Amino acid sequence: MHRTGELYGQFQTLDQQKETATLGMWVFLVTEILFFGGLFLAYTINRHAYSTAFGIGGNMLDLTLGTANTVVLIASSLTMAMAVWAATTGRKSLVTIFLMATLILGCIFLGVKVVEYKQKYDHHLIPGNNFDISYCVKSQNPVCGAPAELATEAKEIEEALKVDPDLNAHAQLYFSLYFGMTGLHALHMIIGAGLLFWLILQAAHGRFDANYNTPVENIGLYWHFVDIVWIYLFPLLYLINRHLG
Q: What distance in Å separates the CA atoms of residue 147 and residue 70, rounded to the nearest whole number?
């Protein structure tokens, strides 16, 4: 492909190239909205149908870890925005610093998510043959939490079973959606981390400046989109009907 500096041969000016690339990114993000939208619709329909089981499932998520991850992602959006600002104003050294900060925050998010997934495995909340919404209550396993927490959980499950006798099956549906939605989001985070790593390598060689910064801006749009998806996932999964029972 013919290039003149950072200008590809099919474009006449850098501005034209940037506008085209930005339009392409927005079109891609619209398809992503449709993609996630289907999952959000499935969640909404099933939450309405099985609100009791979904409320119990939400109560069993670790609110502290979920809140911490929300703060981490908001901070990563800030550092990503600062990276775009540094690139558009020609502050080459700051571009690398802010991109590295964004990557580190993204990795922290993924690490916390691994901890959460491990908790669900220990609590027998992975959809499948071993799924048991009452496992912690019945086993009184210390890994599940303090006795007072388990007593509260036992009361909630007891009350929920009166409303929904098929609580275990419907709670499994909740956790299927939980892993599907957060897992897909995590996959997008991993892809974003790979893109950030590539940007860091390019920025370290001084590639981006006030005249050419399109990749930083477009990957920044992608990163902000992924962060916004989590802003919707967090209240839907962790907060709605949090104190059921």
A: 28
- Residue 242 banded pLDDT, cuts 50, 70, 90: low
Say how far residue 143 (Cα) sits from the centre of its chain: 25
For each of the domains in the chain, give its residue range(s) and CATH number, in order of start. 14-239 (1.20.120.80)
pLDDT digits over 134-151, tens only? 888 787 777 777 777 778
With contact defined as beta carbons under 8 Å apart, do 165 and 53 qualify?
Answer: no
